[in-house]
Amino acid sequence: MDNFNNIEKVCAFCVSEAHLSAMIIPYISKQLKNKNIIKTFLENNLEKNIEIILSKIILNGKNKKEIKKINWNKNNKKIEKDILLEKNNNKIINILVYGKIEYIKKINNKLNLILNKKTNNKIRIINCYLVDEVDNNIKQIVNEHEFLLNTSGIKKIEDVFEKNKEENTLIG
Predict the structure, then answer these.
(1) pTM confidence score
(2) pLDDT digits (tens, 9 = 90+) for 69-92
(3) Where are the domains of the chain?
């Protein structure tokens, strides 16, 4: 975690947008129950997949409505303004970033500029990658993050992967 900004970097890997939607809903549901904030930067629309998954799982009606209110459409026009408005309210701001590697890098660079001021918020940037897209870059991506999100929730990278202690990189 970046001590200055309280930023946590989380990565997630999925095989499809449907898989991402199924994986992220339990996490988002828990965050919303805790009154935390969810913002999205999406290269592709996820709304249809989210609707399908929500129709097949058991959640209370209020929770489903809150999840549906999140912008699941391709976006990033006003997100900077939205994030700045949310700062300093002492809640976790979860920022879900999904797209190709170049899109994720571009959005993370923008987020670094937006979030360069001290805030009371814990900010959790969740970068979601398609496995087919990252193929040979998985080690590098994992080494750039502190946590991994999967269907069982967020775990420390070192709790999921063995690391080379001397080089602080993944063994594999």
Answers:
(1) 0.86
(2) 998 987 656 666 666 666 666 789
(3) 7-170
